[in-house]
Amino acid sequence: MSITDEALLGGVALGQPDAIEEFISRYERRVYGAALAIVRDRSLAQEVAQDAFLRVWRHADTYDPRRRSVNTWLMRITHNLCVDALRVRRPLAVDPATLLDLTDGEHDPARDMHALAPVRAALRTLPPEQARTVLLAAMYGYNAQMISELDHIPLGTAKTRIRLGLEKLRLSLNESHADEELR
Amino acid sequence: MNELSCSAVSDLAAEAALDVLPGDERALVFEHLEHCAACLRLVESYVRAADALLVSLPQADVPEELSTRLRSAVPSVPRSRRSYAKPLLGAVAVILVALTVVLVGLRATSNTHYNPQAEVGSLVSPSNGHVGSVKVDTGADPWISMNVDGASLADGTYRCEVLLTSNATVTLGNLTVAAGSGSWNGPLEVNPDHISVVRVVAGNGDVVAMAGLTRADVGES
Ligand SMILES: [Zn+2]
């Protein structure tokens, strides 16, 4: 029986060395992988990953299980740090093809297949320009103004694509959830 | 008279959930969400979709170097005031948190708790709402820690600064709020006795929270 993520984080908050070691082992691949996928630079991704864990050590006691799972909380922290790191380095050359592959990297099939397939499937159901816009905003923290400049489209179009894209994503994720519950 | 309608908010809900709205629009949306449960639910459902995207990011093999660095930053070393080296910050932070928990616990149970080496303050918003706390360890090498909690500030980076009794302002560092909480701590380069207030300042220059300091042993009875 392995300890739950929440209990583990409780141990981290108390500074228990075993809990901290287990937390690193459990999450280092995910944190580094997410950072690498977003910033696409090995040394920057390492810095981000280190900062993310540092932030966990500092804020483990503020984690609220009612708001998010530990995994999601940690991905949020990592993502915020990536966006901060990229903000310093802009302009970033963003290749749309790379962006759409973003969620297709190496996964641990046994663990990830089930959980992640719906997200990738949902992304594929979006018109490519909406998928791209949503990913630019959700992954890179680009706002509508920046997307409009980057892709040479009117501001209103950028805002609409963010809204429609995320709306479709939300609906198809809800459906795949509903499917699961029916099974 | 700038209040947004539900339909205007639902148009901006996706951008709000992704935290990519310009400051003025964001403020209006968040104001609306404070009293509209329906729009709040919509934004939250977008946040969950965005969360699903982040969680779907691939894993990757961790370079040996990083693996070692993560483990060497494990907070098991007692805090040394002389060592501000990066790898020790994790240790310092956890000990500070532990210390804060102990202090808060003690202060809650005993009004007469005496800690001659610390000054504390509550960070409050301009409307007097709870934002977080500040603690200054006075002594030979003053150290300040600022903590924001309770989801009172929007995610983003804020500047920590102190206003001195001379009216000069000194910037201390940046505090990043993620998922409603964040903290910053570091050496305090000014004499704690000369501090008028400690402030948290948003990117647009607005002071979003401030705190006065009192000695940890007074002010509660
Ligand atoms: Zn509403």
What would you note in describing this structure?
The complex is a heterodimer of chains A (183) and B (221). Chain A is globular. Chain A contains nine helices and no strands. By secondary structure, chain A is mainly alpha-helical. The two termini of chain A are 26 Å apart. Chain B has five helices and nine strands. By secondary structure, chain B is an alpha+beta fold. Chain B has helices spanning 6-17, 23-35, 37-55, 64-72, 86-109; strands at 118-124, 130-137, 143-148, 156-164, 169-177, 182-187, 195-201, 207-211, 214-215. In chain B, 35% of the residues lie in helices and 27% in strands. Chain B has a five-stranded antiparallel beta sheet, covered by helices on one side. Chain B has a four-stranded antiparallel beta sheet with strand order 5-4-7-8, with no helix packed on it. At the A-B interface, helix 2, helix 3, helix 4, helix 6 and helix 7 of A face helix 1, helix 3, helix 4 and helix 5 of B. The structure holds zinc ion.
Topology:
The complex is a heterodimer of chains A (183) and B (221).
Chain A: H1 5-13, H2 17-39, H3 42-59, H4 70-89, H5 96-100, H6 109-125, H7 128-140, H8 144-151, H9 155-182
Helix pairs in contact in A: 1-2, 2-3, 2-4, 3-4, 6-9, 7-9, 8-9
Chain B: H1 6-17, H2 23-35, H3 37-55, H4 64-72, H5 86-109, E1 118-124, E2 130-137, E3 143-148, E4 156-164, E5 169-177, E6 182-187, E7 195-201, E8 207-211, E9 214-215
Helix pairs in contact in B: 1-2, 1-3, 2-3
The complex binds zinc ion.
